[in-house]
Amino acid sequence: MPSWVDGQPLERLSVRDRGLAYGDGLFETIAVNRGSPTLLARHLARLGEGCARLQIDLDLALVRAELLAFSRELGDGVAKLIVTRGDGLRGYAPPQPGLPRRILQGSAKPSYPACNAELGVRLFPCVTRLAEQPLLAGMKHLNRLEQVLARAEWQDAEHAEGLLLDTSGRVIEGVYSNLFMLKDGVLLTPDLSRCGVAGVMRAELLAQAADQGLPCHVCDIGLDTLLGADEIFLCNSLYGVWPVRALQRHEWPVGPLTRKLQIIACDLLDS
Amino acid sequence: MPSWVDGQPLERLSVRDRGLAYGDGLFETIAVNRGSPTLLARHLARLGEGCARLQIDLDLALVRAELLAFSRELGDGVAKLIVTRGDGLRGYAPPQPGLPRRILQGSAKPSYPACNAELGVRLFPCVTRLAEQPLLAGMKHLNRLEQVLARAEWQDAEHAEGLLLDTSGRVIEGVYSNLFMLKDGVLLTPDLSRCGVAGVMRAELLAQAADQGLPCHVCDIGLDTLLGADEIFLCNSLYGVWPVRALQRHEWPVGPLTRKLQIIACDLLDS
After folding, report:
1. Which chain A residues are Cβ-neighbours of B53 within 8 angstroms?
2. How large is the greatest C-alpha to C-alpha distance in chain B, in angstroms?
């Protein structure tokens, strides 16, 4: 599988990179089909927004060109793009001027069981809670120890994903997915202004719902509200949409709206 | 300046390292004098504790041996030790079994102005607040975007350090230092069970204070309490102790206890 650093085929990078030192950077995980990256505009928009918030002066046109060339080489698979603030001396102060680094890593498409999408998944109730940090909320940055701890909580294959709450007990997301619920014909998804990763597929589904005149609220969601949902589903930019069929003793049917959005997501990722 | 990866002189590491991908690891910053690392037992103890909490199966005896050999090569300077969970496939799940990676980077001793230690420093009041995450609190892990954002808040040389509060408004630490205050003969330092880095010099000074019968409390400290202090000082394992002389319009004298602990820290770092 190919690996590029700053546009060159390389498997290694400097030990002085601030991505390693401090997680000082961002990433995107992009499905690639027949040599083309999917949802490219949304991935680049999120990356650009994250860079603006972290004051990383990235050449997005260069990244776009590299991603297109890398995807052609990869063919079918997953392109993981990491952008860091580049090399630094010891100490937290960002180097001035910074020279951001682009890293591209190819891997095979994940082989999730087909039943995840068809029958729905069981959520593991993670004990790990997400800390509330508005300055970092929403970004897909490289500080991901909370996700590492949460994902280490279960090993069994019965649970395809875990449910993450924040430290105040609000429902936020899956470990590697965003979450939506339907109640009385209204689509709800957690507000991610305190913590969580604002996924590209989440943004796309919010836009699709708006296009179709489906009422959709981004708001705080308590666990009780989630448990009272008519339908629940997860999404990300690799697998699309998975219905949630169970959390502990609670069960949900795979509903019609979930199926409808699943088809839309599938089309987006196949195109 | 030397740089080792897994015991070999190397300047590069795999792009698949989980330290880069997720900040999935820990670090120690160690002053090295005449070929010997200072406060070695405390650095290794903290590293071992962090590895236990993150379930990174590190061979501490190997790390110790490498650190001693690296310090001999470095002579005088700073040895930064990074331990990561090693390479991983895509996805948060920790690889089983893990093969932790050791990275050592040498650099020159920082050249802080002598007046920091002699006259004391002015603290910058950081707007960045530390999120409260008990699962990660105290560890010197690689998820340090909060410190990067905080350190980017000021560029002037007038402020040597910044003051960090948590999202609830408690006083926690400096950006790269721990903080102590003295009030009515009692030493106080913030409780770091929700956020913050429990520094090696902090641990050493707490032990020294206990040895000398000086009452010392680890507790929550509000900003008002800090402003009412008789003496305030910062510490870390590179510079030792810096008195705090000012925060905005508030000023403090450099008091006798600060000087006493400064001498102790200085001796520890010179030995």
Report:
1. none
2. 55
Query: Where is the domain boundary, A74, A107, A140?
Result: A107
Q: Which two tokens stand for residue B263?
A: 């001498």
B-contacting residues in A 145-204 (Cβ below 8 Å): 145-152, 167, 175-176, 195
Q: What is the CA radius of gyration of chain A?
A: 19
- Looking up residue A59, the CATH number of its domain turns out to be 3.30.470.10
CATH number where A263 lies: 3.20.10.10
Decide if A92 and B22 are in contact by the 8 Å CB cutoff.
no
CB atoms within 10 A of CB B254: 18
Picking from A57, A84, A107, the residue at the C-terminal end of a domain is A107
Q: How far apart are CA B65 and CA B87, in angstroms?
A: 22
Catalytic residues of A: 29, 140, 173
User: A22 and B148 in contact by Cβ < 8 A?
Assistant: yes
The whole-angstrom distance between A232's CA and the closest CA on chain B is 23
A260 has a chain B CB within 8 A of its CB: no
Across the interface, whether the CB atoms of A144 and B143 are under 8 A apart is answered yes
Instruction: Give the DSSP letter string of B17-41.
Output: BHHHHH--EEEEEEEEETTEETTHH
pTM equals 0.97
Judge: B94–A135 Cβ closer than 8 Å, yes or no. Answer: no
Residue to substitute from A27, A54, A92, A168, interface B, most B β-carbons within 10 A: A92
What is the domain extent for residue A199?
114-270
B265 touches B235 (CB < 8 A): yes
Residues B237 and B119 in one domain: yes
Chain A residues whose CB is inside 8 A of the B51 CB are none
pLDDT of chain B, 271 residues: tens digit per residue: 999 999 999 999 999 999 999 999 999 999 999 999 999 999 999 999 999 999 999 999 999 999 999 999 999 999 999 999 999 988 999 998 889 999 999 999 999 999 999 999 999 999 999 999 999 999 999 999 999 999 999 999 999 999 999 999 999 999 999 999 999 999 999 999 999 999 999 999 999 999 999 999 999 999 999 999 999 999 999 999 999 999 999 999 999 999 999 999 999 998 7
